[in-house]
Design goal:
This protein is of the alpha+beta class. Helix 8 packs across helix 9 (237-248) and helix 30 runs antiparallel to helix 31.
Length: 685
């Protein structure tokens, strides 16, 4: 490549334990190249052309960035449509309000990247004009993010994607990094962001909240990175390469910036001079002649499948009316096809209708869905996290294995399967699966934290700490950082677990009176032996205070060896005063430790104490909102019962009915404690 010149009883019980007519749709075809799938109504010739262009861009990026992960990750599904009207049906919001019609756009879903573009546009006479720049921006950004083990600074991520998005593919040549005229005009107008604020902006910055602010930020980022790559006859490009290598090694971005560039402020005045110039360099490369469009495979897409593909894009675009119309179209074309259920499940999920969504996902699976995400999301709804039911865990592993077979590049399914294997005590399998997820998405903190927990479960403290540290570094949100740091702090101060053994379930309920006169919320739970201890059995079976006092050291030992449910049981003794004096702080400490070990019921119990004022907030994992999520999303019974308990105590209008509904849902599973709580409620008036 070269440079070119140019209630009390209830509380006690909880702790014990598209209409209208449509025109005839055009025929849709699929074109598959080695790395891309194009869905088109423009004919196979145009579909092949678009696939060929994306293959050339992929080759160019692999040349510019030899380290880039150009394969793997969420796949790109490219809609190449014949005209403006076809594009409008896929992204109607761009023709509404004050928006200007566009020629291409992109949007992400949980498991796909969608690109939509017109094929009827002539090759522009302006050499800097690229009608597909938004589509290419999506692709470049995706490659950059999934290639780095740490999140790159926002100015670099956006600026580099802007520069490389203006890639123009000609018949014999690829031109990379031509000037983007409207970006250049914007920075020449002045009124730029202060450089300190610009360099430290993150994804939560105000500069990414409004359209005009985004335009300013991205224009400035484009100018800065274009200068670093092309300015001063390419004199600074080696520093950019050094910066890339440091980031690839996992170096903290602040340290990497200083080591590669030194003091960035010395470049600012040069950038201001650079954008006032008239001659700008860009990169050129010959097209890869080994990529031949005529070798791509094509097929006619059945009507039901075509409607499903378009409907899935509209789900990602948050257009439920249009998406449901296409779901109905798919169902009318083929009642046995899973596509309509896939669309409906995603829409219900987005609307918070969890039970209905779960049923729709299950129908899609029964009808043979070929989409890995459907199996992944059904597992989340059926099993959740921290579930100790072996049958459910095994059901989840079966679903996720199917997801992995359908899409070997879907990192979330590997990561989630790792968590379930850890819960089943299969530590080495869990580690291998987590490593697979990290290799697919190295900058995702969650996958690294999953791996750290798997290593810890297998007794490997040193590596667990190392991976946990990398999870902290890769964190991109406050919650991710809090989760990773909490586990790291725990691992540094603790010893890894001994081989697993059966332990007691968490306590259920009874009403005792703690030192502040409030009714207690804890009592030992069902009769389960812990380590062969008769005292534990008697405590949990007969609610015997003497036995509970003797069981205390057994529970403390088990909790210290990282058995999450034992920590929960230990907390309940202090929470309810069974065999020990009531000590809410000590209860919260035990619940907190259980929560750190992924025992979601411990998290729920801690959150209830936090809301009642007995424990401090735990970062993002606090408050009623978190309790609601544990109940509604993760399906944690203790969370639903705790939430109901809080509603009953509040005694506001409608709260009793809502509490009754929550308890009924848990009682129906069945859950004896929830049923007893339900019976203890006063009759409705």
């Amino acid at each position: 490549m070269k440079l070119n010149g140019v209630s009390g009883a209830a509380v006690a019980l909880w702790l014990l334990g598209a209409g209208g007519a449509k025109a005839v749709a055009p025929a849709w075809q699929e074109v598959r190249s080695e790395h891309f799938t194009v869905i088109t109504n423009s004919g196979d010739r145009e579909g092949r052309r678009i696939a060929w262009q994306f293959e050339q861009i992929r080759q160019a990026l692999a040349f510019i960035w030899p380290w880039a992960k150009v394969d793997g990750g969420r796949p790109f599904l490219i809609f190449a449509v014949k005209d403006e009207n076809s594009l409008k049906t896929l992204g109607p919001q761009y023709w509404e309000g004050n928006h200007f019609p566009i020629s291409s756009f992109w949007v992400s879903s949980a498991d796909r990247q969608y690109v939509a573009m017109r094929t009827d546009l002539p090759e522009p006479s302006d050499p800097n004009s690229n009608p597909y720049r938004q589509a290419y921006f999506a692709y470049v950004t995706t490659i950059l993010i999934r290639s780095m083990p740490v999140r790159t600074p926002l100015w670099y991520e956006r600026g580099l994607a802007e520069v490389l998005s203006n890639t123009i593919v000609r018949a014999k040549e690829i031109q990379v990094g031509r000037v983007i005229d409207y970006r250049l005009r914007r920075v020449r107008e002045g009124g730029l962001i202060g450089w300190d604020e610009f360099l430290t902006a993150t994804g939560r910055s105000k500069w990414l909240s409004q359209e005009a602010e985004v335009e300013l930020y991205e224009s400035q980022a484009w100018a800065f990175v274009h200068f670093l790559l092309m300015g001063d006859q390419g004199a600074h490009s080696s520093k950019v390469s050094r910066f890339d290598q440091l980031l690839l090694q996992g170096t903290d971005p602040v340290i990497a910036t200083k080591e590669a560039f030194g003091d960035l402020t010395r470049y600012f005045s040069k950038v201001n001079t650079y954008v006032k110039g008239t001659l700008f360099r860009y990169l050129t490369a010959k097209v890869d002649l080994n990529v031949k469009a005529e070798g791509f495979t094509t097929r006619a897409i059945p009507p039901a499948e075509a409607a499903t593909l378009r409907g899935s894009l509209l789900v990602a675009m948050r257009r439920p009316v249009e998406a449901r119309a296409l779901a109905q179209e798919a169902r009318s074309a083929d009642a046995a096809d899973p596509g309509a259920d896939e669309i409906e499940a995603a829409l219900l999920d987005a609307e918070g209708k969890t039970e209905e969504a779960q049923a729709a996902y299950a129908r899609a699976v029964e009808r043979g869905s070929k989409r890995a995400y459907i199996y992944y999301r059904l597992t989340q709804l059926e099993v959740g996290y921290g579930n100790k039911d072996k049958a459910k865990l095994e059901r989840g592993t079966t679903l996720l294995a199917k997801a992995n077979a359908l899409d070997p590049a879907y990192a979330n399914a590997f990561s989630y399967l790792s968590s379930l294997k850890t819960d089943l005590g299969l530590a080495q399998e869990a580690v291998d699966l987590a490593n697979r997820a990290v290799s697919l998405e190295p900058n995702e903190s969650h996958h690294r934290l999953t791996g750290a927990r798997a290593l810890w479960s297998g007794g490997n403290k040193e590596d667990a700490i190392k991976v946990a540290r990398s999870a902290v570094q890769a964190a991109d949100t406050d919650k991710e950082k809090s989760d990773a740091q909490r586990f790291l702090d725990f691992a540094l101060d603790s010893e890894p677990p001994r081989p697993r053994r059966p332990f007691a379930s968490a306590p259920t309920t009874s009403a005792t009176t703690p030192e502040n006169g409030a009714r207690s919320t804890a009592v030992p739970a069902p009769p389960v032996r812990l380590g062969g201890s008769d005292d534990v059995f008697q405590c949990f079976s007969n609610r015997d205070d003497m036995a509970c006092g003797k069981a205390l050291p057994v529970l403390e030992e088990s909790c210290a060896h990282q058995e999450g449910q034992a920590c929960r049981s230990l907390g309940s003794l202090f929470d309810g005063g069974f065999g020990v004096a009531v000590n809410k702080s000590r209860a919260a400490q035990a619940y907190d430790q259980g929560c750190a070990l992924d025992d979601k019921a411990s998290c729920a119990r801690y959150t209830v104490l936090q809301i009642q004022g007995f424990a401090p907030p735990r970062g993002a994992l606090s408050g009623v909102v978190y309790l609601e999520r544990l109940c509604m999303v993760d399906q944690v019974d203790d969370a639903c019962m705790g939430w109901a308990t809080l509603l009953i105590a509040r005694k506001e209008k409608g709260d009793l009915a809502k509490a009754r509904g929550l308890l009924q849902g848990v009682c129906d599973k069945p859950n004896e404690v929830a049923c007893r709580m339900l019976k203890s409620l006063p009759a409705e008036r």
